[in-house]
Design the sequence.
């Protein structure tokens, strides 16, 4: 009997211990649940500005990125977020988002023509004449346009295709001047010598005062030029020693040729 009674008492004590542990476990669980609910209930008062719209917000999230995700805002590739997405939030945190969108845009643009100036010996110096009017062309231009908060903030040309080429404007510029009534377009310094003796020139004319021997590569035969101190002379002859910027002036006598010798003269050419 004693043996049976002791076993019963031990069982009762064991049961009481289990109940005590169970009660403690339940109590501890309730305490921890309360702590969890308390922690979960902590919120931060933040202000969110997306473009030009501002709104206060209470959030239980810990970082800027989580707060924006919590309100359903998806941050775009080029969006500007301040502070950064991984910044912890607290009371009075201001979150600013500028939405940035990049779009391609194609536009037709007029292209200017060039003005080409050409010397014209038929016009007096200082005068001009439009030989052909210019016409603008057209290009198809592709831009990469950046919009920040709905406003255009950048525009970069990334492609251009010519639709219509422009037509250059051509302007003739007068270069003709006159000296003693002789029209010329340029003047150059030549070395001049003198010769005489008659006969026929390289062009078949009679050698005479008023004609000169020239290098045809410099002054074409048959060209009338104005030689300073002599007036208008005609290029009709050539000579073995007449090379480059040299002219040989026909004179009436040997004495005149000796007096002249060799000197520099200014030649006015048409």
Sequence:
């Amino acid at each position: 009997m004693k043996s049976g009674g002791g076993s019963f008492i031990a069982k009762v004590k064991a049961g009481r211990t289990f109940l005590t542990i169970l009660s403690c476990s339940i109590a501890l669980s309730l305490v921890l649940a309360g702590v969890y609910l308390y922690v979960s209930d902590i919120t931060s008062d933040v202000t969110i500005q997306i473009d030009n719209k501002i709104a206060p917000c209470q959030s239980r999230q810990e970082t800027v990125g989580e707060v924006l995700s919590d309100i359903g805002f998806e941050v775009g590739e080029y969006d500007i977020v301040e502070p950064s997405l991984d910044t912890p939030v607290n009371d009075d945190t201001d979150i600013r988002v500028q939405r940035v969108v990049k779009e391609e845009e194609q536009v037709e643009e007029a292209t200017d023509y060039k003005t080409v100036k050409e010397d014209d010996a038929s016009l007096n110096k200082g005068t001009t004449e439009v030989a052909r009017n210019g016409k603008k062309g057209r290009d198809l231009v592709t831009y990469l346009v950046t919009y920040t908060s709905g406003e255009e903030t950048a525009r970069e040309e990334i492609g251009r295709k010519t639709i219509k080429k422009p037509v250059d404007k051509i302007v003739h510029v007068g270069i003709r001047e006159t000296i003693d009534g002789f029209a010329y377009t340029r003047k150059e310094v030549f070395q001049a010598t003198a010769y005489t003796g008659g006969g026929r020139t390289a062009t078949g004319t009679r050698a005479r005062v008023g004609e000169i021997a020239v290098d045809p590569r410099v002054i074409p035969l048959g060209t009338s030029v104005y030689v300073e101190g002599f007036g208008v002379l005609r290029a009709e002859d050539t000579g073995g020693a007449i090379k480059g910027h040299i002219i040989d002036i026909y004179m009436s006598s040997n004495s005149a040729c000796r007096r002249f010798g060799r000197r520099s003269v200014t030649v006015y050419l048409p």
Q: What stands out?
A: The chain has a mean pLDDT of 86. The radius of gyration is 52 Å. The CA atoms of residues 63 and 87 lie 5 Å apart. The chain has three domains: 44-98, 102-173, 180-269.
